[in-house]
Design brief:
Elements: H1 30-35, H2 46-54, E1 66-75, E2 85-89, E3 93-98, H3 106-111, E4 116-123, E5 126-132, E6 136-141, E7 144-147, H4 154-161, H5 166-169, E8 191-195, E9 202-206, H6 208-211, H7 216-225, H8 229-242, E10 249-258, E11 271-274, H9 279-288
Antiparallel strand pairs: 1-10, 2-3, 2-11, 3-4, 4-5, 5-8, 6-7, 6-9, 9-10
């Protein structure tokens, strides 16, 4: 499978471009610009910045003080027969994949990451976001909540052009039509975005079974008010189910912590959820001739 990297352009204000933003600014709507921003536009509080700098040597190289604490949850929802979402969370990688609904063996597709994918690669306090499709990543920093991915969908492109509004998306007949995905047939063009990280940052990675049902305001409220990570993921999935649960629901919530001073402990145990933790993983392993790992507790 071939990958084509897309890079953000430098903005006049010194921020990185939004993931997937074209080289020349188009007629993107004001509402869309306000909703999707690069985390570089959030500088971090002086306390967070100072704590982060203490974890770097004079050359700027990050030390190992910053680490991740995370929780994962996946649910089939109320209308689907099987769970086609997959999630993986480990000390160096967080990933949510959504097997294409309506396609044959979608649960196997997501377990093999041939689908939509949002992933955060973490190493020594630095992170890179890889995104293609319509799963999402959000960042909560110092009370501000932003979406740091851009949906690769037809309706998002129409919103960006100002042809339709955000309020029109839910009822649009082509709201699920993807413009980019990992389908194994075309050259994949994921958005690759480097991220600065600070102690206290909280990331949410989720499939559209959550973001398409629960409002951004409610996501913000839950992430900002509930500290326990397992409780956060449980509450988010519960809200999606209360909203009708029309699709599979998967989320990862991860906190960036200073391992030297935080009361919270880093999470070191890898966790699989959804199709990746079910029989689809065993089926995929048989096809590849490998031995499946034991599913995690959140499948």
């Amino acid at each position: 499978m071939k990958l084509r990297r897309t890079r953000g352009r430098q903005q006049d204000r010194g921020d990185l471009a939004l993931p997937g933003e074209p080289a020349s600014p188009g007629p993107q709507s004001a509402a869309s610009r306000a909703r999707v921003r690069h985390p570089g536009s959030l500088s971090g509080s002086p306390t967070a910045r100072a704590a982060a700098e203490q974890g770097r040597d004079r050359s700027g190289t990050a030390q190992t003080a910053l680490a991740l604490s995370y929780a994962v949850r996946s649910d089939v929802g109320l209308l689907r027969e099987g769970n086609e979402d997959s999630a993986y969370a480990g000390p160096h990688l967080l990933a949510v994949a959504d097997g294409m609904g309506g396609h044959a063996a979608g649960e196997v597709a997501s377990a093999a990451a041939v689908t939509t994918l949002t992933a955060l690669l973490w190493s020594q306090g630095y992170a890179v976001l890889c995104h293609i499709g319509d799963s999402r990543a959000y960042l909560l920093r110092d009370g501000q909540f932003i979406q740091v991915t851009r949906d690769h969908t037809l309706v998002q492109s129409l919103v960006d052009e100002g042809t339709i509004t955000e309020d029109d998306v839910a009822a649009h007949p082509y709201r699920s039509l993807l413009l980019r995905a990992l389908d194994g047939r075309t050259i994949a063009e994921p958005d690759l975005t480097p991220l600065e990280t600070y102690p206290g940052d909280r990331y949410l990675l989720c499939s559209d079974g959550l973001s398409g049902v629960v409002s951004e305001q409610t996501l913000h409220q839950v992430l900002a008010s509930v500290r326990d990570l397992d409780e956060v993921t449980s509450r988010l999935v519960g809200l999606a189910i209360e909203g009708g649960g029309p699709d599979n629901i998967t989320c990862i919530v991860a906190d960036v912590i200073d391992a030297r001073s935080s009361r919270a402990l880093p999470t070191w145990q890898p966790v699989f959820a959804g199709a990746a933790a079910s029989g689809a993983q065993a089926d995929l392993s048989r096809r590849l001739g490998t031995v499946p790992r034991r599913p995690g507790p959140c499948g």
